[in-house]
Amino acid sequence: MRSDWTDLPPEVLGAxxxxxxxxxxxxxxxxxxxxxxxxxxxxxxxRVFVKAARKVSADRDGPEVRSLRNEAxxxxxVCEFAxxxxxxAEAGGWLALGFEHVHGRHxxxxxxxxxxxxxxxxxxxxxxxxxPDVVGMRVExxxxxxxxxxxxxxxxxxxxxxxxxxxxLITDDGRAYVVDWAFTSRGAAWVELGLLIPWLLKAGxxxxxxxxxxxxxxxxxxxDPADVDLFSDAFAERWxxxxxxxxxxxxxxxxxxxxxxxxxxxxxx
Length: 269
What we know:
Elements (H helix, E strand, L loop, with lengths): L9 H11 L2 E6 L8 E7 L2 E9 L8 H13 L9 E7 L2 E7 L4 E2 L8 H13 L29 E3 L8 E3 L5 E3 L6 E3 L2 H13 L4 H8 L3 H4 L3 H20 L4 H19 L2
Antiparallel strand pairs: 1-2, 2-3, 3-5, 4-5, 6-8, 7-10, 8-9
Helix pairs in contact: 4-5, 4-8, 7-8
């Protein structure tokens, strides 16, 4: 659950205002869950998108703070795709990041949507960027508890790992921005497409349609089908276990979508 802007201690609020100037009003973000606070701040200096999280203790980061530090580290390397990080403020047991405010709508991934062509350009662009040394997460570790061998998912490509429709903002002039880089990882390039497939299914694609869509990407087309099968089964199993211990609707839905894809892959063997 998100905290309210009024939960910010005076020290961190003062540190934020040192960058923004006096604040007129704050609009909480309606989606996302990787920060205690995420909001558009309207201030004398203009609009800025602020994400903030509280530390576990003065010398210990919690998972939300670690996510913000990950976003801050990668931002300079992905400015072509992401809103720019403008400033960082750490005070009062909190870390806050101020990002360039992007006014845009969430993408539409439904079959036939023109936004899918923008998504193609984004993924092609991302897959052409060398993975910088600041990226420490290895994507294959996500499935170590559900698969005996995760090395097929390993690699040195830059992966956002969550290019869902709410994380792709499209401006009025047709530019696409990818937001929420909290779990940027390195791994096999085709894994980015595998992680995207449940979001295509959710938007109305059949598994066969999703398979044809991702086949346009060289990284996916050249992947060993056995590796894709291994990934698909591990992906579904991990979410099935997550859903067994978490009754939230979106978790159950994602588990069903990953299982649907794994069943489709199994039907092709």
